[in-house]
Specification:
By secondary structure, this protein is an all-alpha fold. The chain has a single domain, classed as Growth Hormone, Chain: A (Up-down Bundle). Helix content is 73%, strand content 2%. It is globular, with a radius of gyration of 21 Å.
Length: 489
């Protein structure tokens, strides 16, 4: 089928119904995941937060999503999107209640850390949409899913300060947070009742083994282990940031315990990956089952720069506009929402262009645009007209989010039965990027922060030069042993 034939308004099509129910689930996860960002001024006042404490909350919010996306990817491949998404949405409701009921900074920080797990919801829909749409429609479909769902952070920034005003009183922010949780919990029940993992008559392929990502060559086995290292380094940096050397949220002893646990966790994960791939290392893999892990690594790097920067920027942008242009919290949230607002258009466009033209050239072009956009944002100051600053922000975000759409236009085409885990790893690298950029932000001013992101795009550009175009079909083996061809081009 031709990508241009995908009509998002054809609600009589079961695929389109699934697409809309999926992006709205993702939308709600982003609303609750970022429901604190536009309420920063209310939280600072209620808890007398210092600037380092507030920045620590921003980092905590994205930290748990790093391992969570890998874990969720495994669960999705094993149990299917329907069960996992429903449970995650209902859990989000409970965590919103915990955050909205917090009585001190420690409770706030713990609830925000756990809320990061909700950010893994994105991975679930990637596998689900990949099951429902063919190769030449999947980029646009994933773009609609990701773009319209990602708009949840903008919706939170645009509406929650106003909702606080409607509730009124010193607890208005609490009621606003809890309200988003109630909606997420209810939708989790609805999602479970209405959504199915695959179209009627289709097979839901599962990994042959659980516990780690399958690779298909010895070289890729060591490559996978190496690509896991930055994830643990990032988590160690987070622990350091929260220790007395940073914001002093946890004692030095606790930080040292975390370092040891991270080393042990890395060794455990390595052993699990070895168990999953032991047969391959000893006996090799049939040629029809092979895939190139380098493709995954390149997408990891691209998502580090694209989605990682988006998460970091949407976390700090309301405060940036508030301080740079002396705005009130409602107006600052509205103008800052322009960055995430572009998700509605940009991410589907990135997926569509990737479907219709060269996926590698698309990626290279969008990364260049991203770099130019961030270098432009680094020049924004109080001397700029506010409208021009918002326009520059939206221009940059177009390339950022189109790049995200191009990344996940390829993820479902690498290996169908592993697409949840691949999406989980790529998604985790997005959060590694977020923690990295937010950590940098805690040491520098906003202008330098934007410039660092722009410079980091050169790494993604170089990696994308080695991206391969998907060709033909991949082979999957069903539980009954039958062989099926999955279109990837």
């Amino acid at each position: 089928m031709n990508a241009s034939k995908l009509n998002p308004l054809n609600f009589s099509d079961n695929r389109i119904q699934t697409l809309h129910m999926s992006w709205f689930a993702f939308f709600l996860t982003f609303v609750v995941w970022f429901n604190h960002a536009p309420l920063g001024s209310f939280l600072k006042e209620a808890f007398s937060l210092t600037t380092p404490q507030w920045k620590a909350l921003l980092i905590l919010n994205v930290a748990m999503t790093i391992p969570a996306r890998i874990i969720i990817g495994m669960l999705v491949d094993r149990f299917g999107p329907r069960h996992v998404y429903s449970l995650l949405l209902m859990s989000a409701g409970v965590l919103c209640l915990a955050f909205g009921s917090a009585q001190n900074y420690t409770q706030l920080a713990l609830a925000r850390l756990l809320m990061g797990f909700v950010g893994a919801g994105f991975v679930i829909g990637i596998r689900l949409i990949g099951e429902w749409f063919p190769a030449r429609q999947v980029g646009l479909a994933e773009g609609i899913y990701g773009g319209w769902g990602n708009f949840g952070s903008a919706a939170a920034a645009m509406t929650l300060p106003t909702v606080v005003g409607l509730f009124g009183g010193e607890n208005g922010w609490r009621y606003s947070i809890i309200l988003t949780g109630v909606i997420a919990f209810a939708y989790g029940i609805f999602f479970f009742k209405k959504v199915r993992n695959t179209p009627p008559g289709s097979t839901y392929f599962k990994p042959k083994k659980n516990g780690g990502l399958e690779v298909t060559s010895r070289k890729d086995f060591y490559f996978l282990l190496g690509m896991n290292v930055p994830i643990y380094i990032c988590l160690a940096v987070l622990a350091w940031k929260l220790s007395p050397s940073g914001v002093n949220l946890i004692p030095a002893t606790t930080a040292n315990i975390i370092y040891v646990l991270l080393v042990l966790l890395f060794l455990f994960q390595t052993s699990q990956i070895y168990k999953v791939n032991k047969d391959m290392l000893e006996n090799g893999v049939d040629e029809t089952q092979k895939y190139n892990f380098r493709q995954v690594a390149i997408l990891d790097i691209n998502y580090f720069v694209t989605f990682g920067s988006e998460l970091a920027v949407v976390s700090m942008l309301p405060t940036f506009f508030l301080e740079t242009f002396a705005l009130d919290p409602v107006k600052a949230g509205m103008f800052a929402a322009g960055f995430a607002f572009m998700n509605l258009l940009a991410r589907p466009v990135g997926g569509l262009i990737s479907d219709k033209f060269s996926r590698r050239v698309t990626m290279l072009s969008l990364i260049c645009g991203l770099a130019i956009g961030y270098f432009t944002m680094s020049q924004i100051g109080s001397h700029w007209p506010l409208g021009l600053a918002v326009a520059a922000t939206m221009m940059c975000s177009f390339f950022v989010q189109s790049g995200e759409g191009a990344v996940f236009a390829m993820v479902p085409l690498i290996k169908r039965r592993l697409s949840g885990q691949i999406a989980g790893m790529v998604g985790a690298y997005g959060n590694v990027g977020a923690v990295t950029f937010l950590t940098i932000y805690s040491f520098v001013n906003a202008q330098t922060f934007f410039m660092v992101i722009g410079a980091s795009a050169s790494i993604a550009f170089f990696a994308s030069m080695f991206l391969e175009e998907p060709e033909g079909h991949t082979v999957e083996i069903a539980d009954d042993g039958t062989v099926q061809l999955i279109e990837v081009a």
